[in-house]
Each structure stands twice: as C-alpha cells, then as structure tokens.
Amino acid sequence: MYCYSCYAMLVELTSLLDAVQETETKMVEMSALNHLMATHILRQAQQVEQLYDQAVGATHNIDLGNKELSKAIQRNTCSRTFLLLFLFVLTFSILFLDRYS
C-alpha cells in the first residue's frame, strides 16, 4: 500500500503531467498557426511584389502614352497648318482663275 506522501506526490505529478500535456498541445497548435501565418505572409509578399511590378509597368506605359499623345498633338498642329495653307492657296487660286477668265 502507498503511503500518504507517495500518494500526494503521485497526484501532484499526475496534475503536472496533465499541465505539461496541455501545454504541449497548445504549443503544437501555435506551431501550426505560426506555419499557416508564415505561408499567408509569404503569399502576400509575392502578391505585393507582383503588384509593384504591375505598377512599374503601368507607369512605363503611361509615360509611353504621354509621349505618343505629344507626338499626335504635334502632328495635328502640323496637319492643321498644312490644311489652312492649302485652303488659302486654293481660295486664291480660284479667285485668280475667276478674275482672269
């Protein structure tokens, strides 16, 4: 038969073992959650890098678009000047031909 102090020690050790097992279970859960969080953070980092690359590409495309718009505005100005000059010459040619006919 067990003595009272041995029984008290057994109860205390059993209680301590339960606490250690509970702590171990919580640590395993925390480890799994930590792994899950690390996975999500890595995925987010990849998405942020992808968004950054897309933003840089979009900025480059906007710069190219602005240059093309500037060229189009210049061409439009030249075309307008040429058209006005052409109409002016045509008008005076018609007036000249009308006067000397």
What does this structure look like?
It is a single chain. This protein has one helix and no strands. The chain is mainly alpha-helical and 101 residues long. The model has no long low-confidence stretch (mean pLDDT 91).
The helix content is over 70%
Poorly predicted segments:
none
Question: Proportion of β residues?
Answer: under 5%
Largest sheet: none
Order of helices and strands: H
Mean pLDDT: 91
Helix tally equals 1
User: Shape from CA axes?
Assistant: rod-shaped
Q: Give the beta-strand count.
A: 0
Protein name: t-SNARE coiled-coil homology domain-containing protein
Membrane topology: Single-pass type IV membrane protein
Family: Belongs to the syntaxin family.
Subcellular location: Membrane
Topology:
Elements (H helix, E strand, L loop, with lengths): L3 H96 L2
Keywords:
transport; mainly alpha; 1 helix; single chain; 101 residues
Task: Give a quick summary of the entry.
This protein is an all-alpha fold and 101 residues long. It is built from 1 helix and no strands. The longest helix is centred in the middle third of the chain and has 96 residues, at 4-99.
